[in-house]
Amino acid sequence: MQKYICVTCGTQFPAATAPPSRCPICEDERQYIGHNGQQWTTLDALRTTHKNSVRDHELNLTGIGTDPRFAIGQRALLVQTPEGNLLWDCITLLDDATIAQVQALGGIRAIAISHPHYYSCMIEWSQLFDAPIYLHEAEQAWVMRPDPRIEFWAGATKALWAGMTLIRGGGHFTGAQMLHWPAGVGGKGALLTGDIIQVVADRRWVSFMYSYPNLIPLSATKVQHIVEAVQPYAFDRIYGAWWDTIVAQDAKQAVTNSAARYIKMLDTL
Questions:
Q1: pLDDT by residue (tens digit) across 105-125?
Q2: Is 253 a domain residue?
Q3: Separation CA 53–CA 107 (nearest Å)
């Protein structure tokens, strides 16, 4: 029995004697099936061809990404606090070297993931580090490998430790969540967004989409909801889903300005 992994999105499925017939996450219009059709791998196979890079973004914030790029290519973020570490978002590859590096940084108290495209091998990470996974209840249908360690929360926000807060932004997915880390940027605050708020090529700006690979925009109402959801929180920096997708300063103003530009274009096109 193998736990097969979708090559296109990196999501792991429950143990089976043969690969699943389909990946519902990739069949959804927010994702896609690769040009060569549905393909599968396993964690053991991935460990023979890939490795993880672990490096600091700033004090108490460490990125973990896979080389060469696999599936969507996001990197996870380990937020370190005196009360325990939070793994934000997740990646598929977990190997002995990564385990040792994360343990050296204090391990993982809990895991939180922005949306289903990054669920990857979350159960492997959860089991190994004995850490619960916090997901919004609106995304239960997208969990391909159910497990009792997943804790679904309801409502608009979920308070964590060390002042951190999960914020339901919606938009890209109904239950899409972001993380407010008040200790980030020397106490100015950071927002970890996955691609719920997407940092764009000009990193003074962000954008918002229903589907990124298929270029399906969000409505003005949903964009405004995301802006309102993060408004109560102070943050000077945004960390997106990839190594370089960072708004380094004045990030809260960037969200406001970008949303206004986005909505104006919807109204004028």
A1: 999 999 999 999 999 999 999
A2: yes
A3: 17
Number of domains in the chain: 1
Q: Say if 43 falls within a structural domain.
A: no
Whether the model clears a pTM of 0.90, i.e. scores above it, the answer is yes
pLDDT at 201 over 80: yes
Query: What is the domain extent for residue 137?
Result: 2-36+50-268
Determine, yes or no, domain membership for 41.
no
Tokens 């249908």, residue located: 141
Beta strands in 116-229 (DSSP E): 133-136, 150-153, 157-159, 165-168, 177-181, 190-194, 198-199, 206-207, 209-211, 216-217
Comparing CA positions, the residue from 90, 59, 76 lying closest to residue 183 is: 59
What's the CA gap between 227 and 225, in Å, rounded? 5
The Cα–Cα gap between 76 and 196 comes to 15
